Predict the 3D structure of the following.
Amino acid sequence: SSAANVLRSSGYPTKPPLRRFLTDCHEEFRADNSGQLADYIPELKRANPDHFGIALVTIDGHVYEVGDSQVPFTIQSVSKAFVFALALEMVGEERVAATIGVEPSGEAFNSIRLTNDNRPFNPMVNAGAIACSGLIYEVDGKGAFERVRAKLSQFAGHALGVDEAVHASETATGNRNRAIAWLLRNYAVLPDDVDAVLDVYFRQCAILVTARDLAVMAATLANRGVNPVTGVQVITPHIVARTLSVMTSSGMYDYAGEWTYRVGIPAKSGVGGGIVAALPSQLGLGTFSPLLDKHFNSVRGLKVCEALSARFDLHML
Ligand code: DON
């Protein structure tokens, strides 16, 4: 038929365009060996710099995966977005707002600087994330970490584990975070049990995920809080909007402005090499490549996000 001729003559692809695009991204960007493994947590130096996975999940639950999309790694700062959502759910907006700001800090993720009224700038930097863990700890005490793990597992759609070696390594070396936490204690942002709060934070950072998990987690945010794979309502649409807002303004640290300008998709990175990006009403993206740039964002992950946004015109604005 003539329709078949059109398909033949135009070289109709055997793979759908999106899958082809992700495969092309993987092929092209895997050649980029720039960037460095995080080394301030000694155990993270053991990561394989060649690992590179991409996963994309649509809000109707289609999963696209390329490369090392099922290799586990520690979630690190990517957890901050989801733990912020959990803190909002557990203690409410007013309590969270009284404890943590929502302004970009313009500084690195591990800055010890606080706002003029001695609060963390936002929940995406370490100070703000530790304060979130503190709010959850105040409600749940010793059960706080399991509460965090259960929530993140719902976002991912299955039970998530912990990398005990990375947790031990950060516990042994995390003195900068300890300093931040004690400063927060000084200003009554944290309760008395500072070490217990820090342990919640260190453990949440050591939760194991894959790029596929991150894509499902992001797609849950994109889908107004309903996990598109399991169908479970994990969080309210109202909290999703708050979470995506701080991801937009602060998710990529001192690269956040540039990121929103160039890519225009709410996102969060982690020093384990993960990035989540959630485009409302459309899709969730998860990438994994442990080579990081000077802002501690994954080099290849950044490139995938930039390319995806440009190729499909996905800038939210
Ligand atoms: O607190 C830390 O330093 C790490 N557990 C997490 C930092 C992080 O992932 C920053 N991300 N780009």
